[in-house]
Amino acid sequence: MLQFPEGFLWGVATSAHQFEGPGSNNQWQQWEQQGHVRQGFRCGDTCDWWRNAEGDLDLCRELGLNAIRVSIDWGRIEPVEAEWNHLAVARYRALLESIRFRGMKPMVTLHHFTHPQWFEERGGFLARGSAERFATYADRIVRELSDYCDTWITFNEPNVLAAFGYVFGEFPPGLRNRATEFAKAMISMHRAHSIVYNQIHKEHPNVRVGIASNWVEFQPATDAASDRLLANFYASAFNRSSLQLLTSGAMEFPLNTMVADIPEVIGKIDFFGLNVYNRLHVKAPFNELALRTGGLFVPPEAPQGDRGAELPYGEAYPAAISAAIAEYSRLDVPLYITENGVPDRTDRIRPWVIVQSLARVHECISSGYDVRGYFHWSIIDNFEWSEGWELRFGLYELDLQTRQRRPRPSAAIYRNIIQKNSLSDELLGRFSDPPVTSPPLSAGTS
Ligand code: BGC
Q1: Residues 38, 40: Cα–Cα separation, whole Å
Q2: Which helix (H) or strand (E) holds 296?
Q3: CA 35 / ligand 1 centre spacing (Å)
Q4: What pLDDT shows up at residue 438?
């Protein structure tokens, strides 16, 4: 049996746009209307949390969660520049109150991929003054909500926002292969983070401010120097960029040659969140297909959840958690697994992912790493950005027609772990190996 420390946070992670439904003036509304999401999907009513999050919060309470990650949609709060929507603020206050009322601790993200359309039209985080504009919004909303929340994440996955917006073209503004814009967006978001960090600490000395970053294990496909170099480049640009900025104020070579340093961000972090899902294999691109996919692929025999409409989501790889924790422990602040999960409509592989990921978390804690909580992505199926409704991440299935929530077997497994604050030998034995996969097609090379 693997016993977790007392006070360990057991949560689920969510985000505003993926759960709330219509009514925001954020940049994803237009992006979806323009048909950029696969199969023309739109978020629609999604989980309807703007009207009623409380039903699903009851499900969270039934699981025994003591924490939950939610985010604020800036596009609701400031739909037009400098016009503050007091009704939207009131709804977020009510949401946080509902969370507290059910005995859960909220961890609130100020930017989870969405911002107002007007902000996007000015160039998003590439625009001059964007960090200050974000900080103005952050300052006001933190003042409004600080009696309910003492743990704030400024940005969810700046590395994904910058990579998907400027390198892979999956998120607005949909640009591809723009390394300089990637680096500039990273710098701008970390500068914004440092301004907000200072602001919050000035007003609320006991509050904690962090960032959540995505971590992907990049595995060179062969021992060839080209594969190893490319994998290392991805790891440095994607996985380690927040770490580098927070410890040295600069990005690693060659990105540091494209942008100015930001020494003001060094050490401005009270905790760090790691969102860990998968492993991607890397083969240096020498042919056209590999160039399109950046040389990233998943071997067919690797354990996987459901594939996206076109691309594989990634190899389900619980060991990535250990690598992420070891690397980010260099910050010397408490760490949280702020997201972990797998797209899996039939719950074929999710139980194994939960059990084995938590076994890794436990192993890290036992060897002295300061890991304070685990947030599963997510409580119910929700709108998965450029993959729309194709990928299902819920412990509960959401029926889009009837709006019914049906528990997948993983919900009971997670409840069992939370209730005992431990992983039982029975679960460890039952889910020691990944289920045999009927392999989804790989979109890359091999
Ligand atoms: C994001 C979530 C997303 C999840 C599953 C994370 O990168 O923060 O918004 O739904 O991964 O792909």
Answers
A1: 5
A2: strand 296-297
A3: 20
A4: 54
Task: List the CATH number of the domain containing 372.
Answer: 3.20.20.80
Among 384, 389, 395, 398, the mutation site with the greatest number of ligand 1 atoms within 8 A of its Cβ is 384
Residue environment code for 401-431, b if the CB has 16+ CB neighbours within 10 A, otherwise e: eeeebebbebbebbbbbbeeebbeeebbeeb
Read off the tokens for 275. Answer: 């969102």
Q: Could you tell me the sign of the dihedral formed by the alpha carbons of 251, 252, 257, 263, in that order?
A: positive
Ligand 1 centre to CA of 375 (Å) is: 12
In a domain, 442, yes or no: no
Helix, strand, coil shares of the chain as percentages rounded to 5? 45, 20, 40
CB distance 340 to 275 below 8 Å: yes
Kindly list the protein residues whose Cβ atom lies closer than 6 A to any atom of ligand 1.
15, 18, 156-157, 160, 214, 275, 339, 377, 384, 393
Residue type, position 39, single letter: Q
Number of domains in the chain: 1
How far is it between the farthest Cα atoms of the chain?
A: 58
Cα gap 125→192, rounded to integer Å: 9
Domain range enclosing 183: 2-430
Residue 439 pLDDT grade (very low, low, confident, very high; cuts 50, 70, 90): very low
- Whether the upstream peptide bond of residue 378 has omega within 30° of 0, thus cis, is yes
Condensed to tens digits (0 to 9), the pLDDT of residues 130-158 reads: 999 999 999 999 999 999 999 999 999 99
Q: Tally Cβ neighbours within 10 Å of residue 202.
A: 9
